[in-house]
Write a structure and sequence with these properties.
The protein has 219 residues and is α/β, with parallel strands linked by helices. Helices cover 25% and strands 21% of the residues. α2 packs antiparallel against α3.
Length: 219
């Protein structure tokens, strides 16, 4: 089987160049991320358990459209998947909550299973373009009862927002309701610090905090 290499734009400079091919900027993607994360943070403990993800998805889709729609990019609801599409470029973009983005080792995983519509949009026929031999597992074959009318002309991407605020714009291969691989990943932003590094020096915990002990004078 021919190896499949995902195209990755890892540095901020490379990401800006690649986003420009879509007529987009990192500022727009960050605005989508910020809106979605703010919505998730607004979820009350009294709300259903899925409230943070649901609110993030709703506001994420709203922000995606608010940032991108300009006449060339228009609203798209093909197969019920809320997205935007630029038919001139042949690009569709949706929104997705993931566990974590912009990690070279651990690829993002969606917080919810992907339905057959998304699977059909992001199936693997493009592997033929890369000379990859398809597997014979029938579970990987998209169902025949769903069709993407633009499937031959449009590549589908998602703004993937991680729980830690990381965000990337990527085109996944969806199979068995999960991301099985990626055609392309564009890293837009990721937390560059560990928790320990984010602690302010003036308020950080004391490493050598000892309680002073003295014995009472018996005299």
């Amino acid at each position: 089987m021919t190896a499949f290499n995902t195209a990755i734009s890892e540095t901020p400079a490379d990401a800006e160049v690649r986003l420009a091919d879509f007529g987009l900027t990192s500022t727009q993607i960050l605005a989508i991320r910020d809106s979605a994360r703010a919505a998730a943070d607004d979820a009350s403990p009294l709300m259903p358990l899925n409230a943070p993800g649901t609110l993030a998805y709703i506001r994420g889709v709203e922000a995606l459209r608010a940032q991108v729609l300009d006449g060339e990019w228009v609203i798209d609801r093909t197969l019920g998947v809320e997205a935007v599409i630029n038919r001139e470029l042949g690009i569709r973009i949706g929104y997705q909550n993931v566990d974590k983005a912009c990690d070279l080792v651990f690829k993002p995983m969606p917080r919810s299973v992907k339905g057959p519509a998304s699977e059909k949009m992001c199936s693997f026929p493009l592997f033929d373009y890369y000379g990859m031999t398809l597997e014979t597992d029938h579970d990987r074959v998209p169902r025949d009862d769903v069709k993407d009318p633009h499937g031959d002309q449009v590549a589908t991407y998602f703004v993937m927002v991680g729980e830690d605020g990381s965000v990337e714009l990527s085109s996944p291969i969806i199979a068995n309701q999960r991301y099985s691989d990626f055609r392309e990943r564009i890293f837009v932003d990721r937390p560059g610090e560990d928790w320990e590094d984010r602690i302010e020096p003036d308020s950080e915990p004391l490493d050598d905090f000892d309680v002073p002990v003295s014995f009472k004078d018996k005299t």
